[in-house]
Structures are given as C-alpha cells and as structure tokens.
Amino acid sequence: MVQSALKYLVAFFMIISISSGSYAQAEKAESEIQSMMKRLDVVGLSVAVVKEGAIVYTHSFGLKDKESNTPLTDPTIFRIASISKSFSATSIMQLIEAGKLSLKDDFSKLAGFKVRNPKYPKRVITLKMVLSHTSSINDKEGYFNLDVINPDKNPNWTNCYNDYEPGKGYQYCNLNYNMIGTIIEKLSGTRFDQYVKQHILDPLALYGGYCVDSLDSSLFATLYEYNAASKSFTPSLAAYTPRREEIKNYVMGYSTPVFSPTGGMKISAGDLAKYMTMHMNQGSYNGIKIISKKSAKLMQTKVSDDEGYGLAIRTTDDLIPGKIMKGHTGSAYGLYSAMFFQPKEKFGIVVITNGCNPTYTRDINDVLRAATNILYNNFIN
Fold this sequence. Notes:
Beta-lactamase; seven-stranded antiparallel sheet
C-alpha cells in the first residue's frame, strides 16, 4: 500500500516536472521569437516543432490580417510557395512506384511536345533532370502556362533554355514543376489538385490543397509584401486568386499551371509538419505509407552538389550550425516559409511568415533562420 502510494507520488511529481519544463521552454522560446519579430518587422509567424517523430509544439504569433487586426492562429492556412514542389515530386514517385513512368523517361514523350535544348538537340531531357532543376530549362519566358516552352505556341521558346548541356548544370526553375504537374494528370487521369488531395492530403488527414475554391477562405492568412523605401506592408491581392474562368475551360494535361504545382499549396504550419514527418520517416506517417523508403531516399539524395538539391528536397548545412538538414523553403507574395528536418535525429521544424522585412544571410531568409534556431535551441538541443 505504502509502495503504491510512493510510486503514485513519484509519477505525479515527474509529470509536474516535465510540464513545468515544457512550459518554461515554450515561454522562453516565445519571448525570443517576439523580440525577433519586432527586430525584423514580422507581421505574423506560425511554427511547428517535431521531436522524435512527434509534434511537440505549435504556436502562432502576430497578425493574420493587419487591416482587421485579426490575430494569427494555428488553424490558419498559408500559400506556402515553393515547398509545394515536394508535393508534386511525391506524386510523381507514387506514379513511378505504380509502374507508370521512370525517372529516365524522355520528358518530350511525357509532355506531348518537344522539350529539347536547341543547343543540344540530341541530348534527352529526362524526368529526373526536370525534377532536380538540372534540365537546363529556365523561367525567362515565364512559367504560368506551358505555351512559353511549347515550340508550336511560342516563337521565342528557345529562350527557355540555358547554354549548358542538360544534366550538366543546375538552375532553380519554376517552369520545371509546372510541367511536372501536367505529367501527373496525363498518367493518373486525375486533375492535379484532386490527385494530391486523394493520394497525399486525405490519407494523412491534412487540410489543404491547390484549388482555392475547395478551401475555407476565412482561414487564409493575408500575405504582405514589404516596401523597403517606405518601411510599410501592402497586402497581396494575387496570392489566393481562384482562376475560375481558366478552370472552367480546363484542358487535362496542359492547363495544370492554373493550380501552380510549383508553388500553389495552401496548408497550415501544423499540417505541413505532419507531411514533413512523413518524409523524415522515409515515406510513412502514423502507419500510413505515402511513398516507399526507396522513393523517399531518392527525393532526399543530392543530384546537384552545387545547391544540394535532390527531387524537391534540398540538403543544407546553412540553417542550424553543425546540423545537416533536409527540406525546402518558399517565398512569394511577401510570404516566406521553411520546412526542414534531420532524418537521423528525428527532429524537424516548420516556420511560416505572412510578411516581414526580407533580409537574407547565406540565401536563407533571416526570419526563417532566426525562428528555426530559437525553436531548435529551446525544444531540441
């Protein structure tokens, strides 16, 4: 009886101790983040921390909308920009696993029109080159539709190619991933936004998507572009454009850039952290398999040593001192986002801001780096 009571008391005080420690960690982290936000003119910030494969902390700071003085909350969803590319690459890996295509496939045959660098007409541009930004394709003609690179549609299509041989150089390119979206449609027979919802979001029980009209617009964070001259913020009107007319006249396998496979995912920081954990766990989350371990490893393996880029997953040692992290950043319409994880140590951090003074250190936005390190030092280290 006495021993049972002692065990109960020990367990009780352990819980109190852990809770107090967690509270103290959170209080310290939040104080440091709020100081950083004042220093770097941050409108709002949503964060999530994963430790040992589980989400241990989520929080939102600042404003969701400045004009109405609405606070940012955890259910708020953001257009996360280029982190979206990893959803497109994940979808491609699913189709590869289903035997519908290969990383070695000629992208011309997949796209249905000639995708060839005119300076190297005999050099095949493969699916893997497009996924890894080693295709020699660029964004000089834009990337909001496929006409820009289609020789039958644009007389200046040759501008879409760099001088180097495909596979022999690296240049980050949004057009690559808007083309990837069309391949997903062609081989799955499902519209791009619906494919991602059915095969990634729904199985993981995540709320988000690429189609604006399929989401609750009251959850959207207003995105703010910073004017350095006036030190003021302007709300972006383009971030959540529904593109209803284009969708009404949609052509499967060609109109796909309407949904921006390269940057159009809308999701909360917390749900993005769950998706990130799936990649950290090599393709599975909470017993749900999205891709195989082989596919997850391929996505995380560097193709380009110059930038550490794999297949929509980048490797960097510039984010947290002494740590090699894998993930992706995003920036558009004033938003800056980061999703990075350490696969061996099983921790990861998501940071999203809907507006800030966009200063950079070593190619990573200072707000993203500062917030990531504050969270790492308080919850992981």
